[in-house]
Amino acid sequence: MNERLQATSYGHAVAVTPSDSTALAIPARALFVGGAGTITLDTTGGEVGVLFSAVPAGATITLGVTKVHATGTTASGIVALR
Fold first, then answer.
1. What is the C-alpha separation between 23 and 37, in angstroms, rounded?
2. How many structural domains comprise the chain?
3. Bridge partners, residue 13, by sequence
4. Which helix (H) or strand (E) covers residue 15, if one does?
5. How many beta carbons lie within 10 A of that of residue 41, not counting itself?
6. How far apart are CA 38 and CA 53, in angstroms?
7. Is the overall model pTM greater than 0.85, yes or no?
8. How far apart are CA 20 and CA 5, in angstroms?
9. Where in the sequence is the domain holding 18, given as residue range(s)?
């Protein structure tokens, strides 16, 4: 398989319900954002409460994510990609 295709392909997509207490069951390699807004998240690298402002609808945040917080998240239609 083409290395570039393999590096940017995802095998699973799971809807995310933002929560201040519950982490994602399996960390995401990226997040797809269906509706514009802000997203507050924790990363697989250990950063907590990172705020992404003005995320446009249709954006993909290519960052390892362990949790999407309810507090500070206004974006909708968030999908974990892995």
1. 20
2. 1
3. 81
4. strand 13-15
5. 26
6. 5
7. yes
8. 34
9. 3-81
